[in-house]
From TrEMBL:
InterPro entries: Znf_RING, Znf_RING/FYVE/PHD, Znf_RING_CS, Znf_TRAF
MF-aspect GO terms: zinc ion binding
Domain RING-type, first and last residues per copy: 18-56
Any single biological process term in GO: regulation of canonical NF-kappaB signal transduction
SUPFAM superfamilies: RING/U-box, TRAF domain-like
Pfam families: zf-C3HC4_2 (PF13923), zf-TRAF (PF02176)
Name by which UniProt lists this protein: E3 ubiquitin-protein ligase NRDP1
Residue ranges of every copy of the TRAF-type domain listed in the record: 101-144
First and last residues of each zinc finger (TRAF-type): 101-144
PANTHER family, per the entry: RECEPTOR-ASSOCIATED FACTOR, PUTATIVE-RELATED, TNF RECEPTOR ASSOCIATED FACTOR
Coiled coil: 192-243
Record-linked Gene3D superfamilies: Zinc/RING finger domain, C3HC4 (zinc finger) (3.30.40.10)
Record's keyword terms, sorted: Coiled coil, Metal-binding, Zinc, Zinc-finger
Length: 244
C-alpha cells in the first residue's frame, strides 16, 4: 500500500500515484508500459493476474524495474505531514526523509520497555512513564541485592530469596565439582593408558637390547676361542721351528 494522499501538502502529479491503490507510490516499481505501482501492490496483483491493471498488457515480475530517475526525484521532493499529526504534531518533511523522521519522532507511539507492561506511550513521555511504571524493576531496599518489580513488593521476602539463591549456587557448585571430577578422571585414565603404552614400548626395547647383548657376548666368546686357537697354533709353530 502507498502513502495516504491526504497527508501530502499541495498538488501530487498523477504519475506519482500507484495504479492499483491510487495512493502515493511507496517503494515503487515500473512496468514496461511505464505504469508505476507500489512494490507490495503489484506483487499482490501478479499473484492472481499476468497483466497490467491499467492497460492489460502482459507483464511479469522479472520485467518490473525501478522508477526513472526524474520520477524518483519528483517523488522524493513531495512534502507530507508526519503520521503523528493526529497527536498534535504538525511536522512536515520530504518523502525522502519521512521514514527516518518517523523512526525518531517524539510523538511516535512506542511500547514500554519493561517486561510485562503493555502500555503504548509517546516517545517523549517514555521517561516519565518508566519512573512510575508498575512493572519497573529496582534493587531491594533492604540490601539483599535482589531485583524486584514494584508489583511484587508485597510478595518479596529477602530471607526466602537469599535461601533460593544459596540453593542455586550450591547446586551450581556441585555440578561444577562433578564436571571437574569427571574431567580429572578422564585425564588420569588417558595418562594411565599412555604410561602403560610407554611401559610396553620400553619393555620391548629392553628385551631387544638384552637380545643384542647376548649376541655380542656370543661373538666375544667366539673371538676369544679363535684367539686361543691361533695362539696355540703359533706356539706349536714356534716349537717346530726350534726343533728344526
Amino acid at each position: 500500500m502507498g502513502y495516504d494522499i491526504e497527508r501530502f501538502v499541495g498538488y501530487v502529479n498523477e504519475g506519482l500515484l500507484c495504479s492499483i491503490c491510487r495512493d502515493v507510490l511507496e517503494d515503487p516499481l515500473q512496468a514496461p508500459c511505464e505504469h508505476a505501482f507500489c512494490t507490495a501492490c503489484i506483487h499482490g496483483w501478479l499473484v492472481h493476474h499476468s497483466n497490467c491493471p491499467e492497460d492489460r498488457q502482459m507483464i511479469d515480475v522479472s520485467l518490473l524495474r525501478p522508477l526513472y530517475r526524474y520520477m524518483r526525484n519528483d517523488l522524493n521532493r513531495l512534502q507530507l505531514h508526519c503520521k503523528n499529526r493526529e497527536y498534535g504534531w504538525e511536522m512536515v518533511c520530504s518523502l525522502e526523509s519521512i521514514d527516518r523522521h518517523e523512526r525518531e519522532c517524539e510523538y511516535s507511539q512506542i511500547a514500554c520497555s519493561n517486561a510485562g507492561c503493555t502500555v503504548q506511550i509517546e516517545r517523549r513521555n517514555l521517561d516519565g512513564h518508566l519512573a512510575v511504571c508498575e512493572y519497573r524493576s529496582r534493587e531491594c531496599p533492604n540490601g539483599c541485592g535482589y531485583t524486584i518489580l514494584s508489583a511484587e513488593d508485597t510478595q518479596h521476602n529477602c530471607v526466602a530469596e537469599l535461601r533460593t539463591e544459596l540453593e542455586l549456587l550450591r547446586s551450581e557448585m556441585i555440578c561444577r565439582v562433578e564436571e571437574a571430577k569427571h574431567e580429572m578422571e578422564s585425564r588420569l585414565d588417558s595418562q594411565r593408558r599412555h604410561m602403560v603404552q610407554k611401559e610396553s614400548i620400553l619393555q620391548n626395547e629392553i628385551e631387544e637390547l638384552k637380545s643384542q647383548m647376548s649376541r655380542m657376548m656370543s661373538d666375544v666368546r667366539s673371538l676369544m676361542a679363535a684367539e686361543r686357537q691361533h695362539r696355540q697354533e703359533l706356539e706349536q709353530a714356534e716349537l717346530e721351528k726350534r726343533e728344526l
